[in-house]
Amino acid sequence: MAMTIFFGPHSAIFIATRRQNRAFREISASGTATPKHPYFMKYHVLLAGILLAIASCTSVTPQPVPTDTRLTAVFMENYQPYCGQTFAGYSSYTDLGEDSPLQDARLTMRITDCSSDEVRIHFMVEQDSSRTWILSFQDDALRLAHDHRYPDGREYEANFYGGIAMDNTNQAFAHYPEGKRASTSQLFFPADPQTLSDRPTREINVWSKAFDHEAQTYYYRLYLRGELRYEAVFDLSTPRS
Fold first, then answer.
1. pLDDT, tens digit (0-9, with 9 covering 90-100), for 17-76
2. What stretch(es) of the chain map to CATH 2.40.128?
3. Do residues 218 and 87 touch, judged by C-beta distance below 8 A?
4. Which fold has domain 65-235?
């Protein structure tokens, strides 16, 4: 029995069985038709089109993959030796516009609330203490959030923006820094759905947190469209009183 594949509302083509193929060869031998006959050529063109359509329909869009919890759990442990301490830092690279308050600013961070599930880091820019970085586990994924407050405690608009620690081994993120991979000392946080619902333009944002244990240095970085646009460096070797 022939198998029918419908191609539009008014036409169909038939995938030939072995018996039909043998019939086609007999027709060709009799001189009535050849493989170059218009019927055969039309058949092959339609079949190729259907196969191409099936292939395009079955292609799978790469899905984001959260960084393995074995990596993120160890990364969170990196904060334990520094918990409760304050460290000085500076902006080592800034490409955020001329009016950025981070340009040439004196930076300070104080690491607090160092549990296995959440770490809070108060981030000061000169005398401005309105910023806090929050790293917390949510449904087995590690999220970085930015908490911005006015002096009276009110939240900034679109507060708690950030992202989930993600890998990009399947190329799901167009703006992930090229060649970068997560590790127990470095994580990357592409903007997550919560952030994009408030500010869709942050689709190009990827934040990064990193420890350099040998140099006793801590880094906070922002990438836009895969390019480094900001880097803050903190000296972990000399805590401030």
1. 444 455 445 444 555 545 555 544 555 555 556 555 555 555 566 777 899 999 999 999
2. 65-235
3. yes
4. Lipocalin (2.40.128)
